[in-house]
């Protein structure tokens, strides 16, 4: 069965970076792209961007400079690095599978909780 | 960016009741609209895509409709397990944007 397994919760200090992972299994990784979504109390759900299996990306302008998406197709894993963290980055981050092009999110990861606190 | 206005923001309904949630896009999104359900502490679950297509395994009491800017999600006969928060999402163009959510509670 299709699974998107995300890395565990992170508690970090302001100013540092963190890298979250999302490993796909149960499907052909190169047939799909991966979206990243932020869920916070303040802003509810926000689309961060999409990365295809070959590394092509499209970012929400709001997250350019904050988020960097990468992919390792050899391990069927997508990554998102968040830089220069502040308390506003504290949220749950989800990966979600979709095809490149206009496609819905068929499957979601379980979410990674990020807490930025001094 | 396309703005998705979802209503109501919360609602109470009785078991067996028919309920409808709406989403209005700030421009035509050509039916590139999906609906999600999210329960406390869980990741979202996609119910409907392309405005009216049911994801495999989703109960048939869920249905979607709409076109252009206006879309709706209907639950024909509310079940206890339907409690949660429902969101719409357009995927017509980048950036994708979500509705603000509808919290559905059982009376």
Task: Report on the architecture of this protein.
The complex is a heterodimer of chains A (118) and B (107). Chain A contains no helices and eleven strands. Chain A is mostly beta strands and 118 residues long. The mean pLDDT of chain B is 97. Chain B has no helices and eleven strands. Chain B is an all-beta fold and 107 residues long. In chain B, strand 9 (84-90) and strand 10 (97-98) form a beta hairpin. Chain A binds chain B through residues 35, 44-47, 50, 58, 60-62, 94, 96, 98, 102-111, and chain B through 32, 34, 36, 43-46, 49-50, 55, 87, 89, 91-92, 94-98, 100-101.
- Specify the structural class of chain B: mainly beta
Q: Kindly estimate the percentage of residues of chain B that lie in beta strands according to DSSP.
A: over 45%
Q: Report mean pLDDT of chain B, rounded to a whole number.
A: 97
Work out the strand percent of chain A. Answer: over 45%
Q: Uncertain regions of chain A: pLDDT < 50 for 5+ in a row?
A: none
- Give the fraction of residues assigned to helices of chain A: under 10%
Distance between the termini of chain B: 36 Å
What is the approximate shape of chain A?
globular
Helix run count of chain A: 0
Mean pLDDT of chain A: 95
Quaternary organisation of the protein chains: heterodimer
The chain pair with the largest interface is: A-B, 23 and 21 residues
| Envelope shape of chain B | globular
